[in-house]
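Subject — a protein and its fold
Encoding — discrete vocabulary of local shapes:
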Amino acid sequence: MIILRKNLSKTMRYLFFLIFWLIATLTLAEPSDNRVLTPDEARNVEIIQLEKTMARLSQESQAAYQQFLMTQEMRRNEMAQPVDPVPFNPTGQSIPVPNYEDMIQRRKEKDDRLAKYTEDLDRLYSRYQSLEMEREGIFQRIRSLEQKKAEE
């Protein structure tokens, strides 16, 4: 049993050293392709990078828009709910009068939730607008690069 542990320990050390050596070699290795790109190739590489950035921005923009819609719906539902629902009593017996402090507390909590939803909506809308403006700028840059490519 002790011999098995020693062999396993040596094997683990060897594997650790091998993995460390492989990572160090890959990290320190220089690319073998050191040629200079032509202007057309550089333009194509830039277009590809811009398209990737544009796809990422599009996903972020869509996520912000979906969050905006969800928050808007939660705010709409909150506004539709009455602050002090009147309980229905089918037996005709008297209903206890709600506590005034509890009613004030519920109204304050509702106002706080509505204020938070409004703040979130403003933040999400401005985030969406900034992403769309950034995306439009990238789209214009891609268009200008493609026009330069077509002119040459």
